[in-house]
């Protein structure tokens, strides 16, 4: 990843990102999914539509705080602000699920999975299940530059305010055709014009990465308080976060029911990569298993 420099501290905010990815199913189970850092809801679109179409689930994939804003605005996001924003979105999701008498499953991709774990630990009575997709507790994948190890030190210097890393191939994608499309999109993206609703960024603000270091530390501390059934999905050759992330979560959470799916033909972006159908199918099966059984018929209150 190449280093770029820019002073974008006074970048103004723009109109909020439209909240478009809300899918209404049969209201028997609700799924609240969070996208990854510098990503957007579109990276969850395939699995969201699969869950709605094949399993008749209600699915909501809201945009994370300041995603879709100019990158200078995104860079100013503090981890506590991000978590508070997600908690507010979760409050809405659980109110709707409760009104429908439906179990609520929380999940996410990458940092979205970290946020989902934190919600599950804080609100155990409201979370019926957790889906962790490429969870990111350590940036230790084979494509992560050695400079990332300096994040804890850079956090104490002014460098973080004007340093950005440009993302480079393979962009979390084993799918070469999709990788080429991303490369073409990123080719004409600069720090001055970056920030489009529902689309990812070509750069990582170092200031934001420093904030995520604190968020991840908080998540590591609360893992034993996660008690809901959990599905963890990770690629064996994840370019950003190794399977060590999935293994640590599996070992430390307090959940009695744990499922681990390792993928052989994907990189980090498992929701859009070559095995996305396999991922979506596993998610659907997991959510179906959490739907209450009718006391009269003895069958699940959801079309199989």
Give me the number of helical elements: 9
End-to-end gap: 45 Å
CATH architecture descriptor name: 3-Layer(aba) Sandwich
Q: Assess the beta-strand content as a share of residues.
A: 5-15%
Per CATH, the class reads Alpha Beta
Helix and strand run: EEEHEHHEHEHEHEHEHEH
Report the CATH superfamily: Alpha/Beta hydrolase fold, catalytic domain
How much is the radius of gyration in Å? 19 Å
User: Which runs of at least 5 residues are low in confidence (pLDDT < 50)?
Assistant: none
Q: What is the number of E strands?
A: 10
Describe this structure in words.
With 304 residues, the chain is an alpha/beta fold. It has a single domain (23-288), classed as Rossmann fold (3-Layer(aba) Sandwich). 35% of the residues lie in helices and 14% in strands. The chain has 9 helices and 10 strands. The protein has helices at residues 45-55, 71-75, 79-100, 111-122, 151-154, 176-187, 206-222, 244-252, 276-288; strands spanning 2-5, 22-23, 30-34, 58-60, 104-109, 129-133, 163-166, 203-205, 230-235, 258-263. The strands form 2 sheets. A 7-stranded mixed β-sheet has the order 2-4-3-5-6-9-10, sandwiched between helices. It has a 3-stranded antiparallel β-sheet with strand order 1-7-8. Strand 9 (230-235), helix 8 and strand 10 (258-263) form a beta-alpha-beta unit. Helix 1 crosses helix 9 and helix 4 runs parallel beside helix 7 (206-222). The longest helix is centred in the first third of the chain and has 22 residues, at 79-100. It starts with a strand and ends in a 16-residue tail after the last helix. The model has no long low-confidence stretch (mean pLDDT 92).
